[in-house]
Every structure is written in C-alpha cells, then in structure tokens.
Design goal:
The complex is a heterodimer of chains A (256) and B (321).
Chain A: E1 2-6, E2 9-11, E3 18-19, E4 26-27, E5 33-35, H1 37-53, E6 56-63, H2 68-77, E7 81-86, H3 97-108, E8 115-119, H4 130-138, E9 142-151, E10 155-161, E11 166-173, E12 176-180, H5 192-198, E13 203-206, E14 216-222, E15 231-232, H6 237-250
Parallel strand pairs in A: 1-6, 1-8, 6-7, 7-13, 8-12, 9-12
Antiparallel strand pairs in A: 2-5, 3-4, 9-10, 10-11
Chain B: E1 2-5, E2 8-9, E3 12-13, H1 16-28, E4 33-39, H2 43-49, E5 57-61, H3 70-84, E6 88-92, H4 95-108, E7 112-120, E8 126-131, E9 136-142, E10 148-152, E11 171-173, E12 186-187, E13 191-192, E14 205-209, H5 219-229, E15 232-235, H6 237-241, E16 262-266, H7 272-275, E17 283-288, E18 301-304, H8 307-320
Parallel strand pairs in B: 1-4, 1-6, 4-5, 5-11, 6-10, 7-10, 14-15, 14-16, 16-17, 17-18
Antiparallel strand pairs in B: 2-3, 7-8, 8-9
Bound molecules: flavin-adenine dinucleotide and adenosine monophosphate.
C-alpha cells in the first residue's frame, strides 16, 4: 500500500502567541515548532499499516523551509521519503485551508496514493478542513475523526468517533482519505538508529506554480475577552492552599 | 437570505440546530432567514423547525439520505443551494458538519468559516473564531464567492433564545435527484463501547488532570488529592490518549459530560472540547501556571502556579482539618 501522511508544522503548545502592530499578524520570532499532534498519530497509523500490509509511507508538509523539521522527524520515526511543498505563505495565519489543500493536491495528485491520512484538525488554525478539501480536490471518498483502520481487498473499514462516546464503522473503497483523531494508537518515538537512517532518506522539494486566492481574510486578532469573574487566589503555595480550602468550605460550601 | 441547515438524527432535531437558528437571526438582521432539513422521513424535525421565526422550512426528503453519508449530503445540498441561492449558510459545528461541510465548501468553491463563536455585523459580515487552542480570537471575513458557509461552535449561542414565530412557517418540499452510485461510503449503525465501569456523571466531586501533570508517574499525586477530597479522578483527552488513565475517565465532547458540585482542573488548558464536558459544574477550581490559559474563563477560583507545589500544599491543608 502506498500511503501519504500530511503533517503540519505548528508552534508548540507552550508558545503564547502575540499579535503584531498591524493587529492582523503574529510575532513568531520566539516560537519553536513541532508536529501537529493528530498528525503524529496519523503517521503512526501509516507506519503500522505498512508493517501489516507492506508498501511505502510518504510524508508531506506545505510550509516554509523551517517546516522540513517535521519531515526529518517523521523520517526518523520510520517514514520512507518526504515531499516538501515549499512556500512561506503555506502555514501563515492568513492562509486558509483552501490554499493549503490546493497546494497539497497539486503536489500529491500524480503519486496516485492508495491511502492519504491527515490529522482531524490543526492545533494552531483549528480549521478542521484541509483533509476533507484535499479529498474533494483529488476526487476521493473520505471519513473523518477516525479511531481504527482495517484494510481489506481494495476497501477500508474505519471506526469513526461520534459525539458523547458513540462510534460508527464505515466502509469505503480505496483510494481514500482519512482524517485521524488523537489516541487512535500509541505513538513511537525516533530511535538513534532511526535518526541516522533518516539522513539518507529523500526530501523532495516542490515549489507550487501558483497558490489559490484565500477565501478568508483576517480582520483582527485579539486575546479572548473574559466572560466570567474568576477569583484569583495568590500568595505562596501554602497561603494559597489555606485560602482555597477556606473558600471551598465557607463560601462555595462544597467541602464539609 | 440566510439559510440554516439543521441537523437531525432519526427524524429528531439536534438541539444545536436551534443554536444555529439563533446565530442566523443575528447574522441576518433585517434580511430573511430560511431553514433546510434533509434526510429521510424528517417531517417531525421540519415541524419543530417551523416554530422558529423563519420565512420557510425547506425539506429534502430522500431515502438515500438515510443513513447520513458525506457524498449523499453534498449531492443533495449542491442542488438545494443552487435552487435557493442564499448569501450565507449557517450550520451547527457538530461532528457531522465537520465531516461534510468542508467537502460542500470545496465543491461550491466557496469560503467556510468553521467553529465560530460570534458574529460581527457591519458592511461586510465577519465572524469570531478561536485559534491557537483558544489563546487568541480571530475576526475573519469571507472573501470572493457567495454563499459563504459558517459553522457555529456548540454552546456559543443559546438555542432557547432563538426567535419563535406566532404561526408555523410554511414547509416546502425540495426535490433532489441522487444517483445511488455517487455514494461511496457505507455506514454501519452507531454504537457505544461496552458499558463503562465508572459513571462520572453522578460524582459529587471530581479532580481532573491534564497534560500539565507531565508524566504517568505523577498521576498518583492527583489521586492523593482526589482521595482527601472524596473525589473521583478524571482527565483531559491527551492523558487518556497516552494511556495514563483509562478512556472512561475522559471528560469532554468525546468523553463524559459531568456536573459535580466541585471540579478541580489541574494543568488543563481549557480547550472547548474539554470545557463542554465540565462547564456545568457548580464550583470550578483551576490550577495552571499560565495566567492566560482559557480554563480561567470558566473557573470560579483560580490559582496561577505550579501544580507540583500547589497540590501537595492543598493535600496537607485538607489533612490538617
Ligand atoms: C474532535 C475533538 C474532540 C476532542 N474531545 C476532547 C475531549 O472529549 N476531552 C478533552 O479533554 N479534549 C478533547 N479534545 C482535545 C482538546 O482540543 C485539547 O487538545 C485537550 O483538551 C488539551 O488537553 P490539556 O488541557 O490536558 O493539554 P494542554 O492544552 O497541553 O494544556 C496543558 C496545560 O497545563 C499547564 N501546565 C503545564 N505545566 C504545569 C504545571 N507544572 N503546573 C500547572 N499547570 C501546568 C499549561 O499551562 C497548559 O495550560 C478534542 C479535540 C477534538 C479536535
Ligand atoms: N501546511 C500543511 N502541510 C501539511 N499538512 C497540513 C498543512 N495544514 C494542514 N494540514 C493537514 O490538515 C489537517 C487539518 O488541518 P486544519 O484544516 O488546519 O485544521 C492537519 O492535521 C494536517 O494533517
């Protein structure tokens, strides 16, 4: 099976985004980056499917040159080769899923993958769209929020997560695209041997001929407005603990 | 005209559909709002929807729309949107919407603003949505082609505040031609995993741990706090994904919904998918080292600090008493 995994390069969760003077862009100078979390699970699922059914795992990211970091990490975890759709605009906040999915579709179309995996949503944009739009651009069926993948003869049977603890199995023909939910498997991490082996693997660069026009425009960026009055308890850990316990007993009356 | 696409299951309207109606009223202002429901045998859902202050309820009733498939829904909606020509389309951001709306937007080649929490009306509409896991709010406007599609975060609008009309709105049948061969997905009936051993919905007190707990070996610390508080232990999704606690202890949109008297969130950032499962708690305590963590928006009491210093201090305070 020839499997593609789309991986987005995102600022780490600890990073506190700050808005620049334009009010429409971010100051990213102090950010460090990582693999988007569900995409790591998508990669792991692809590696497991390759172990079971043999074939090839190709990882792909669209973004500036620094985004190659997630490709090197994926190669170290066991992916066979990588495609880097290189353009500074491709992970910028003002670039929407249409633009990214269009660029990914152009880069991946001729490879004729049997299966494409993406994460269900990005930690930065949270658009939850890129995978599904990519499937449509490639003319493929899709399933979202997938928690189990079974491969049969030219077909898939996948377990989709529904709301509130419900699930559903769905069968679909190959080729297909799946958006993977975190927790579908247990992740493996790169070994020293994997890191060494990755140095010899190919990262093919693709420069998109043109990018689609964005369908969305950022008007402003802002920090969220507080809606509830939280009583902040301060002091040393010991003081804060004393105050909290007293308030829970006397004011909130939730402790005896 | 603003068109609300309602969601129904087995003919019963999903309550988030009313939230989408409320958002559509706000977006439309003086403009007309109409609603659409699709599926098979959905007259009950259509009748309920006709109580809303909408100019019409359109019904696409087709046997190939039950069960739901993204291919079937997109096929039917392309025809419905082509016939009704709305300027904007509003849907609730449910898991089903996540599954087919981006495909619909791609097929229409129209903008989709997903998971919105608010509307900014002016010359050109704009929508507020959370980015960076709720650390920032972006105001976004659709560009280019019509209609634009907007999905509304669950709970962002109150369904019971949606305007109702004195008389029922007219219900109009819309025809859709669906070739069975366009539907590639074959869904099986929804199911739940085997009955869960812990029912957190009945717990009076809950101590919930998030990724701030750092490692499996530290879960014991939270467990000690839970014991002295007489509380159940629960977790955010990543803790269960990592296998540090069983899935049945997960709180949130894909886990359990709880409403205890006391909910103590340790090292949980407060992502919306977590908050929907616990915001009904009477008293919420948040302990987080990040003063900007969104969990402080829903907390009654907050302590900004390191949980590894604070939790032992709280345990010894409780043991003193
Ligand atoms: C479709 C879908 C469904 C989902 N369903 C769920 C669900 O049901 N339940 C759920 O929980 N999530 C769910 N999620 C995931 C959700 O979006 C968040 O990713 C998740 O809730 C984050 O968990 P967290 O707060 O533990 O981790 P993080 O967001 O990483 O937050 C960790 C927090 O710990 C704090 N911290 C770190 N160290 C310390 C310290 N020493 N002391 C104090 N604080 C510290 C940090 O400041 C940070 O705020 C879902 C996501 C999707 C897309
Ligand atoms: N720039 C990118 N490069 C590669 N994959 C991406 C990129 N952006 C988004 N994706 C994929 O699309 C998924 C959903 O992203 P989003 O639509 O932004 O929520 C992610 O989990 C990735 O798998």
């Amino acid at each position: 099976m020839k499997i593609a995994v789309c991986i987005r390069h995102v600022p780490t969760r600890e990073w506190q985004p700050r808005v620049d003077d334009s009010g429409r862009a971010l100051r990213e100078q102090d950010a460090s980056y990582e693999m988007n979390e569900p995409d790591a699970y998508a990669l792991e699922e692809a590696l497991r499917l390759r172990e079971k059914h043999s074939g090839e795992v190709v990882v792909c990211t669209a973004g500036p040159s620094r985004a190659a970091q997630v490709l090197r990490e994926a190669l170290a975890r066991g992916a066979d080769r990588a495609i880097h759709v290189e353009d500074d605009r491709l992970v910028s906040i003002s670039t929407d899923s249409f633009v990214v999915a269009g660029a990914l579709a152009d880069a991946l179309r001729d490879e004729r993958f049997d299966l494409l995996l993406t994460g269900l949503q990005s930690d930065d944009q949270g658009a939850a769209q890129t995978g599904v739009i990519l499937a449509e651009r490639l003319g493929l069926p899709h399933a979202t929020i997938v928690m189990d993948v079974q491969v049969g003869d030219g077909a898939l049977r996948v377990k989709r997560e529904l709301e509130g603890g419900w699930f559903q199995w769905v069968a679909l023909p190959l080729p297909a695209l799946l958006t993977i939910q975190s927790g579908i498997n247990q992740l493996r991490y790169a070994t020293l041997k994997g890191i060494m082996a990755a140095k010899k693997k190919e990262i093919r660069k693709v420069t998109p001929a043109s990018l689609a026009a964005p369908r969305l425009a950022i008007v402003t960026l802002d920090v969220p407005r507080k809606t509830k009055k939280t009583e902040i308890i301060s002091g040393t850990p010991g003081d804060a603990a004393t105050q909290l316990v007293r308030k829970l007993k006397e004011d909130a009356r939730v402790l005896a | 005209m603003i068109l609300v696409i309602a969601e129904q299951r087995q003919g019963t309207l999903h309550r988030a559909s009313w939230e989408a109606v409320a958002a559509a009223h706000e977006l439309a202002g003086e403009d007309a709002v109409e609603a659409l429901v699709l599926g098979s045998r959905v007259s009950g859902a259509a009748a309920e929807l006709s109580q809303a202050a909408v100019a019409a309820v359109h019904v696409v009733d087709h046997e190939l729309l039950d069960p739901y498939t993204p291919d079937g829904y997109v096929e039917a909606l392309m025809q419905a949107i082509g016939a009704l020509k709305p300027t904007g389309v509003v849907l609730p951001h449910t898991y089903q919407a996540r599954d087919f709306v981006p495909k619909l937007a791609a097929r229409l080649d129209c903008p989709l603003i997903a998971d919105c929490v608010g509307i900014v009306r002016g010359g050109k509409p704009a929508f507020r949505r959370q980015i960076f896991q709720g650390k920032l709010v972006a105001e976004v406007s659709p560009e280019g082609r019509f209609p634009y599609l907007v999905s509304i975060q669950i709970g962002a609008y109150r369904g019971d505040s949606a305007k109702r009309a004195a008389g029922a709105a007219p219900i109009k049948a819309l025809n859709a031609v669906i070739d069975p061969s366009v539907i590639r997905e074959k869904p099986e009936p929804p199911f739940r995993e085997a009955r869960q051993a812990v029912d957190l919905s009945q717990a009076e007190r809950i101590v919930a741990v998030g990724r701030g707990i750092k490692g499996k070996e530290h879960i014991a610390l939270a467990e000690r706090l839970a014991t002295v508080l007489g509380a159940q232990l629960a977790a955010s999704r990543p803790i269960c994904d990592n296998g540090w606690l069983p899935m049945e202890r997960q709180i949130g949109s894909s886990g359990q919904t709880v409403a205890p008297k006391l909910y103590v969130a340790l090292g949980i950032s407060g992502a919306i998918q977590h908050v929907v499962g616990m915001k009904g708690a009477r008293t919420i305590v948040a302990i987080n080292k990040d003063p900007d963590a969104p969990i402080f928006d829903v907390a009654d009491y907050g302590i900004i600090g390191d949980l590894f210093e604070l939790v032992p201090a709280i345990i010894s305070e409780l043991e003193k008493a």
